[in-house]
Amino acid sequence: MPETASDKIPVTVLTGYLGAGKTTLLNRILSENHGKKYAVIVNEFGEIGIDNDLIIGADEEVFEMNNGCVCCTVRGDLVRILDGLMKRKGKFDAIIVETTGLADPAPVAQTFFVDEDVQENARLDAVVTVADAKWLSDRLKDAPEAKNQIAFADVIVLNKTDLVTPDELAEVEGRIRAINPYAKLHRTQRCQVGLADVLERGAFDLDRILELEPEFLAADDHDHHHHDHDHEHCHDENCGHEHHHHGHDHHHDHGHGIKHYHDEDMQSLALRTDKPLDPTRFMPWLQQLVATEGQKILRSKGILSFSGDDDRYVFQGVHMMLEGTHQRPWKDGEPRESRLVFIGRELPEQAIRDGFEQCVTT
Amino acid sequence: MTGGFDSTGGTASIATVTDRVKPVELAGAVAAVHFLGSVAAFVGDEETVTLVTPEGEATQLPLHAGAVLCVASDGRRVVTGGDDGKVVQLSQNGEVSTLVTDPRRRWIDNVALHADGAVAWSAGKTAYVRSGKGEEKSHEVKSTVGGLAFAPKGLRLAISHYNGVTLWFPNMAAAAEGLEWAGSHLGVTFSPDNKFLVTAMHEPALHGWRLADGRHMRMTGYPARVRSLSWSANGKMLATSGADTVIVWPFASKDGPMGKEPGMLAPLQARVTTVACHPKEDILAAGYSNGTVLLVRMTDGAEILVRKNDDAAVTALGWSADGGLLAFAAGEGTAGLLAL
């Protein structure tokens, strides 16, 4: 389970639909004068205009682990390449894995959860998704891969914002937020984003699971603070029953620029309680939940307060894989709240809510 | 061989020859060690090979412009593949030559040698064979090549990949044969009698096939991936890493290890990382994750301590062809030679 992650090589997964600007971002990262050296695993040689002997071509080879779990897929090529790269430890500071435009990020992330050798040497830093402001809304309708990439992201680089009107931008952001309200979102032209915003994020570092606030609330706190409660419920009780017939067109403008959409099949679900959880009920419930619904759950995260336990417990998961740890003692005056988020496809919302309620001590 | 007792740690009561080891200090981690005659060739994880004579004289030679990804030897030469897209040969006279440069500078993931002089290598999904006469052929499999091995008889190459192994006869027009088993197959080896084929899988298990009829053999129970395999001198036993004992599978009968328990030798509170069977006797050398090196008699499990644990894992072990010299390397290049 997670040790101090510092001596492990950080790995950033760079994803995004065809033409969104992944290569532009990659070239920027490699050419900027940051004094760091990156090993880059790419699918197409030649697109990178930078001379670097640590650019490695890969075929995205996904295989199922022989453990009877159908969504337990890993990138075999990545296991092999990371193994080879580790022989050159000390020659580079970090690794960037570029996926093809049609790739599902899950096997890449899962490789870091299941492969012992990979885990020993490297750690997943973040999934960064480059999205095309002009075309993403359309792709979310016709390309399930694009939706997966948004749902999976820790950081979204919303690129080509110069090609859209402010209204179109608000619309595409609204659609992104309907799927994934938790990712950091950066609006860019030609992928002009600070490298610190996409690299060394520590998004998979259990010690850095901070507040599980929807990102756009946290970012514009003064504007939306009073809406907090409403928003959260808006994503479940109030609107939950309408998902299936409303689809893409259900939105309401709260008058502060961000439109609220609901995506037909991909949602996030936030749970919260200020009463302690019973660990003897919660742990089996969570494990059972990911074992049965793990194919639908792309990402999960939580900060938990257990009864009779003075430590904060944190966990995260990708599909059926979970990892968790006692993070640190709760601080004096810190509200002992439990918060969980799930991002997934056709999440069985009510069942998750009911199951969670059963784990709350009364 | 000096007897006596070692008073430190968990190996308190076994015979030791640690005082007879000639220490060798190398510049970096070692990927593999092979003997060319009486000279040990310590192939580094990166760039170079260091030749060490029995007297301890060391000479460093350049091999690759980057990481060394794979190493093979037939006792007369050492051949390596690198992330610089090259296949490089080190001859017995110490001459280094580049055999192959991949035109796209792809990683050379695997190399294998045939007794008649042929060399095989792979880059991505393609396996290549160059015969002793210099004739080159290639064969593409459906996913990246995990391992290569020449059969002991005839010119036949086993190519492991996802979901099985392809048996390719480079000199025959006939289609390659496939042996299927779900999962990712990495290392591959033929039994010396040419009756069995064994792969080390991505998960902690071996898979085997009886070549006569393709019958499957599953060899499971390992806590970690098996990265080191070595056949005993008589070819009747396969010693493996991956557990906290050396796991030895019996291959003497026509059914191979099926229905039999493997031998479990030399248990320590550490994981076996490397094994190398003696070329003539039923003795093996085992290296562990804590740096221990043991000699183990395969018939009764008797142990002799060659190197005490010092925390860094053993990465390479090798015997000279006559069995008179053992070489080992651990950690970032702490190595040694033992004359028996």
Layout of helices and strands:
The complex is a heterodimer of chains A (362) and B (340).
Chain A (H helix, E strand, L loop, with lengths): L8 E8 L5 H10 L6 E5 L12 E3 L4 E3 L8 E3 H10 L8 E5 L7 H9 L1 H6 E11 L3 H7 L1 H9 L2 E5 L6 H14 L4 E4 L7 H4 L16 H5 L1 H4 L3 H7 L2 H4 L2 H4 L4 E3 L5 E3 L4 E8 L5 H15 L3 E9 L5 E8 L2 E9 L8 E8 L3 H9 L5
Parallel strand pairs in A: 1-6, 1-7, 2-3, 2-6, 7-8, 8-9
Antiparallel strand pairs in A: 4-5, 10-11, 12-16, 13-14, 13-16, 14-15
Chain B lengths: L14 E2 L4 E5 L4 E7 L2 E6 L1 E7 L5 E16 L3 E6 L3 E6 L4 E6 L8 E4 L5 E5 L2 E5 L5 E5 L6 E4 L6 E12 L8 E14 L5 E6 L4 E5 L4 E5 L9 E3 L5 E4 L5 E5 L12 E3 L6 E6 L5 E6 L4 E5 L5 E5 L6 E6 L5 E6 L3 E6 L1
Parallel strand pairs in B: 1-27
Antiparallel strand pairs in B: 2-30, 3-4, 4-5, 5-6, 6-7, 7-8, 8-9, 10-11, 11-12, 12-13, 14-15, 15-16, 16-17, 17-18, 18-19, 20-21, 21-22, 22-23, 24-25, 25-26, 26-27, 28-29, 29-30
| Broad CATH class of the largest domain in chain A | Alpha Beta
Strand percentage of chain B lies at over 45%
Content of β-strand of chain A: 25-35%
The overall pLDDT of chain B, averaged over residues, is 93
Helical content of chain A (DSSP H or I, runs of 4+): 25-40%
Shape, per Cα inertia axes of chain B: globular
Number of domains of chain A: 2
What this model shows, in words?
The complex is a heterodimer of chains A (362) and B (340). With 362 residues, chain A is α/β, with parallel strands linked by helices. Chain A has two domains: 9-208, 3-Layer(aba) Sandwich (Rossmann fold); 265-357, Hypothetical Protein Yjia, Chain: A,domain 2 (2-Layer Sandwich), CATH 3.30.1220.10. In chain A, 32% of the residues lie in helices and 26% in strands. Chain A is built from 15 helices and 16 strands. Chain A has helices spanning 22-31, 76-85, 106-114, 116-121, 136-142, 144-152, 166-179, 195-198, 215-219, 221-224, 228-234, 237-240, 243-246, 279-293, 349-357; strands at 9-16, 38-42, 55-57, 62-64, 73-75, 94-98, 122-132, 155-159, 184-187, 251-253, 259-261, 266-273, 297-305, 311-318, 321-329, 338-345. A seven-stranded parallel beta sheet of chain A has the order 3-2-6-1-7-8-9, sandwiched between helices. In chain A, strands 12-16-13-14-15 form a five-stranded antiparallel beta sheet, with helices on both faces. A two-stranded antiparallel sheet of chain A has the order 4-5. In chain A, a hairpin with a 5-residue loop joins β10 and β11 (259-261). Chain A is globular and about 60 Å long. Mean pLDDT of chain A is 82; it is low at 1-5 and 217-256. Chain B has 340 residues and is mainly beta. Helices cover 0% and strands 53% of the residues of chain B. Chain B contains no helices and 30 strands. The radius of gyration of chain B is 19 Å and the shape is globular. Classes of the chains: A alpha/beta (362), B mainly beta (340). The A-B interface holds A 45, 53, 56-57, 59, 61, 63-67, 76-77, 79-81, 84-85, 87-88, 116-117 and B 29, 31, 45-46, 65-69, 83-84, 104, 106-107, 109, 124-125, 143-144, 146, 162-163, 182-184, 201-203, 205, 224-225.
